[in-house]
Specification:
Layout (H helix, E strand, L loop, with lengths): L4 E8 L2 H17 L5 E7 L3 E4 L21 E4 L6 E4 L3 E7 L8 H18 L5 E3 L2 E6 L2 E11 L2 E9 L23 H5 L5 H15 L5 E5 L14 H7 L36 H12 L3 E2 H4 L5 H6 L4 E4 L3 E2 L9 E2 L9 H12 L3 E6 L10 H14 L4 E5 L7 H8 L5 E3 L9 H4 L5 H14 L4 E8 L5 H13 L4 E6 L16 H13 L4 E4 L9 H8 L8
Parallel strand pairs: 1-2, 1-11, 3-4, 13-16, 14-15, 16-17, 17-18, 18-19, 19-20, 20-21
Antiparallel strand pairs: 2-6, 3-5, 6-10, 7-8, 8-9, 9-10, 12-13
Helix pairs in contact: 1-13, 2-4, 9-10, 10-11, 11-13, 14-15
């Protein structure tokens, strides 16, 4: 298999999440977990970073004032002094292998050349200056560069000023330089230059300078204007009547059970309803304990099989979600207060069902300061007390990228930490409300660092408009950050008001995904039309690494 350059335009991503994602990919490249190089392209919220050569003296405002400016300050492990990143700036993080660990200066010269060549295609004349790192123009410095090379693999990179708020540069001596101006591409050409234009110019320039012959590019959707972080607030949605907590309202008209242009359901998607005694008994148990199952809420096609086997995925923190993802049937609404006794009831259900492997998930609770992570941890602890022989898998939301919330869960040492990526990078904004591909990858890496003995797991749903190449790229990304288990299943529209089915993926294509995933080193890939995130969860965990299960 030939080495690829995998380019990922991730959109706007908080600095610490991008930093941890770099660390994960660097680790993957340096250890051989992935043979591919990466180029991450992002835009950050306002942040100042101080490198190894800086002592903070070139920041011209008191650090305690930065929150008033909507900015953060981070000390990082790259070279150089202080830099600024913010909206309207394209930041590039190459994670590439160099031939020799001492080739830092030639590597920096290459990065400068990439930016110079990209600017030339935007009709901007730029150059290097002797003794000064970065890219310069007649009006001043237009791009900063600061890097780190460890174990022959690079981190950090360049920041190109397209159309940022230049007043933020007044709060520092950029790169420690006191006598040179800073400018933007938009100022140089006399018009606003977009991130999309810059990405389109920069990718071929990078591939040419670094002689990358096999380049795979995946991009998040570009969003015009300043509202690049697409976010839904439940209070606003309810007030506007956009969503209703009880999902009332008229449905689109179906013809033979299909929306316009939807394909006909193939025979391999037919599921037989088997409402046997175990299925009925489990439903009674859930209702008696006032618990919810995601099996029912999401209308999972495997509900009869799993309930009939005496297994289920418990859903804690209520049944109303603060997000409105276009594929999901869980009710969107303003949640009620969470029930502090819910962990006890969930533990009782796990014990009563005599489960060997329990899956615990939740709705998104963006209304809670900790995202519900405390209730997750309590549920893990109570389940272990009630049923010590049960392995615990948790399927968690992203907690809005809060590492403290994730640590709360990981400190309870779940055997499997599951967080679903759901779809490919290009479709994230359309499908996952307030979520982010880069955030999900960073979360999976952080979970592995916090509890190395446990397994990490993620899931993809296909048939929503992605291409097969995009799925393969997502599998490569999940492997690169150290994910142990991946599930891939067919999207089935829950109601006429949800996202239409784009296509039905054949069993043969599912088999190809499994073969590819395992060929690049994913320990276990569960791939099939009816696969869901918790399907065959115990078998998948045992297959990924049997010795890890049961460790606390």
């Amino acid at each position: 298999m030939t080495k690829k350059l995998r380019v990922r335009w991730l959109g706007r991503l908080p600095y610490t999440e991008a930093w941890d994602l770099q660390r994960a990919l660097h680790e993957g490249r340096a250890t051989g977990r992935t043979e591919d190089d990466y180029l991450l392209l992002v835009e950050h919220p306002h942040v100042y970073t101080v490198g190894r050569n800086g002592d903070g003296s070139n920041l011209l405002v008191a650090p305690e004032r930065l929150p008033d400016l909507g900015a953060e300050l981070h000390r990082v492990d790259r070279g150089g002094d202080i830099t600024y990143h913010g909206p309207g700036q394209l930041v590039g993080y190459p994670i590439v292998q160099v031939d020799h660990p001492m080739q830092i200066v030639p590597y920096v010269r290459k990065l400068e050349q990439v930016v110079i060549d990209a600017l030339a295609s935007l009709d901007v004349e730029a150059w290097r200056e002797v003794g000064l790192t970065g890219v310069w123009t007649a009006q001043g410095k237009v791009a900063a560069i600061g890097v780190r090379v460890s174990r022959r693999v690079t981190m950090h990179g360049f920041a190109l000023n397209l159309d940022p708020d230049m007043t933020y540069f007044d709060n520092m001596h950029p790169c420690g330089i006191t006598d040179r101006a800073v400018t933007s591409v938009s100022a140089l050409v006399g018009r606003k230059v977009s991130l999309e234009e810059a990405v389109e110019a920069l990718v071929p320039a990078f591939a040419a300078v670094f002689r990358a012959n096999d380049v795979e590019v995946q991009k998040a959707a570009f969003v015009r204007g300043q509202g690049r972080e697409k976010s839904f607030e439940v209070d606003r949605l309810l007030a506007a009547g956009t969503f209703s907590s009880d999902k009332t309202g008229s449905d689109p008209v179906l013809v033979n059970g299909r929306l316009p242009n939807e394909p006909q359901r193939p025979p391999w998607m037919k599921v037989t309803a088997r409402m046997d005694a175990e299925y009925v008994e489990l439903k009674k148990l859930m209702r008696g304990l006032e618990l919810h199952t995601v099996c029912e809420e999401a209308r999972c096609p495997n509900i009869f099989e799993c309930f009939g086997m005496g297994t289920a995925t418990l859903m804690i923190l209520g049944d109303k979600c603060t997000r409105a993802c276009s594929f999901c049937n869980v009710t969107t609404g303003k949640p009620t207060e969470y029930d502090v006794l819910e962990p006890f009831r969930a533990a009782e259900a796990i014990k009563s069902m005599n489960l060997k492997h329990a899956v615990i998930t939740s709705v998104n609770r963006d209304d809670l300061d900790d995202g519900g992570s405390g209730i997750f941890a309590q549920t893990i602890d109570r389940a272990r007390m009630a049923s010590p022989g049960t392995d615990i898998e948790v399927l968690i939301p992203d907690f809005k990228g809060d590492p403290a919330a994730l640590k709360t869960v990981m400190d309870a040492h779940p055997d499997v930490l599951n967080h679903n990526t759901e779809t490919v990078l290009r479709l994230q904004r359309d499908i996952r409300t307030s979520a982010s591909y880069g955030r999900s990858l960073a979360l999976l890496a952080r979970a592995k660092w916090m509890h190395p003995e446990g397994l990490t797991k993620s899931g993809l749903i296909v048939g929503m408009g992605e291409t097969s190449d995009e799925v393969l790229g997502a599998l490569a990304d999940l492997r690169a950050v150290g994910t142990d288990i991946v599930t891939i299943g067919q999207y089935l529209r829950p109601t006429p008001r949800h996202r239409p089915i784009h296509r039905y993926v054949s069993p043969e294509e599912f088999a190809e995904y499994k073969e590819f995933g395992e060929s690049i080193g994913l320990p276990h890939v569960e791939s099939g039309p009816l696969v869901r995130s918790s399907y065959h969860a115990k078998d998948a965990a045992g297959s990924a690494t049997p010795v890890a299960i049961g460790r606390r």
